[in-house]
């Protein structure tokens, strides 16, 4: 007679449904947190947009200004900006809901790794956005306005186009600043060795400049402002990987050893 545990009929379906219910609840909680923050900020939506547009407005010539070419643009663009800010503020709650949903399926060593990764990823993403806002935007806009002056053309920018540009740059620099986390995860999980990461350094440098040429405006200054930090962050990732990963030891060496010992015990 088999000693295997019999799974009740319909148990798999009930488990699947329970997971769907939990996923729905987690999504509702994450969405509610974003909505609550958005409603708390919506009154200041025009001020938030003016703050976002400050790097451009400070670089515009005396006759330059932001314009609205869409009838509803003056209403929806500040709302989009406020929603973006609300999502960034509520992101720790959103990440916690994701963590709470996947945590039961993780091993203990994976649980210990997730929380530092979440905190560092969120912090680096904010640093990347701040880097773009305080350094990249003023530099690029000043350069473009100075280059536009000899043409004698009026520099009037549509607020919707400006928002699209800003979101693209925020995403590009936010993701770029995640490079140290990616390097540490790859080394820690044993996907790529530290020696291999050092070996591919020239390809990373070339890839950084290619990526910068694709996602930034077609001027050498903004491309350098993305490519150079990307290369520096890769080097910082290598330094962090040396700290968190013991060379010559498998990332999950303890789990593997314990598994072998259990196997010997059962045999």
From TrEMBL:
Cellular-component GO terms for this entry: TAT protein transport complex
TM ranges: 27-45, 83-107, 119-145, 165-188, 200-218, 224-245
GO biological-process terms attached to the record: intracellular protein transmembrane transport; protein transport by the Tat complex
Lineage top rank: taxon: Bacteria
MF terms (GO), sorted A to Z: proton motive force dependent protein transmembrane transporter activity
UniProt cross-references to InterPro entries, sorted A to Z: TatC (IPR002033)
Membrane topology: Multi-pass membrane protein
Cell compartment(s), UniProt: Cell membrane; Membrane
Keywords: Cell membrane, Membrane, Protein transport, Translocation, Transmembrane, Transmembrane helix, Transport
Coiled coil: none
Physiological role: Part of the twin-arginine translocation (Tat) system that transports large folded proteins containing a characteristic twin-arginine motif in their signal peptide across membranes. Together with TatB, TatC is part of a receptor directly interacting with Tat signal peptides.
Family the UniProt entry places it in: Belongs to the TatC family.
HAMAP family: TatC
Quaternary structure note: The Tat system comprises two distinct complexes: a TatABC complex, containing multiple copies of TatA, TatB and TatC subunits, and a separate TatA complex, containing only TatA subunits. Substrates initially bind to the TatABC complex, which probably triggers association of the separate TatA complex to form the active translocon.
Designated name of the protein: Sec-independent protein translocase protein TatC
Gene name tied to this protein: tatC
């Amino acid at each position: 007679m088999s000693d295997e545990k019999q799974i009740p009929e319909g148990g798999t379906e009930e488990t699947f449904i329970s997971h769907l219910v939990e996923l729905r609840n987690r999504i509702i909680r994450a969405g509610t947190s974003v909505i609550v923050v958005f409603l708390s900020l919506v009154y200041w939506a025009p001020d938030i947009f003016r703050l976002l547009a400050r790097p451009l407005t400070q670089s515009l010539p005396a006759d330059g200004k932001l314009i609205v070419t869409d009838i509803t643009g003056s209403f929806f663009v500040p709302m989009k900006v406020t929603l973006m800010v609300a999502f960034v503020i509520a992101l720790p709650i959103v990440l916690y809901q994701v963590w709470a949903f996947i945590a039961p399926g993780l091993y203990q060593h994976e649980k210990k790794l997730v929380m530092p990764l979440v905190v560092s990823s969120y912090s680096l993403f904010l640093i990347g956005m701040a880097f773009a806002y305080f350094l990249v935007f003023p530099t690029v806009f000043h350069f473009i306005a100075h280059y536009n002056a000899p043409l004698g053309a009026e520099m009037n920018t549509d607020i919707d186009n400006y928002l699209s540009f800003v979101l693209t740059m925020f995403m590009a620099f936010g993701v770029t600043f995640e490079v140290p986390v990616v390097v540490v995860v790859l080394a820690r999980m044993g996907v790529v060795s530290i020696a291999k990461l050092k070996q591919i350094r020239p390809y990373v440098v070339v890839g950084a400049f290619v990526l910068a040429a694709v996602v930034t405006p077609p001027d050498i200054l903004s491309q350098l402002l993305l490519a150079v930090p990307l290369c520096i962050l890769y080097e910082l990732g290598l330094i962090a990987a040396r700290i968190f990963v013991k060379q010559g030891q498998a990332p999950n060496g303890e789990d593997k050893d314990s598994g072998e010992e259990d196997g010997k015990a059962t045999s």
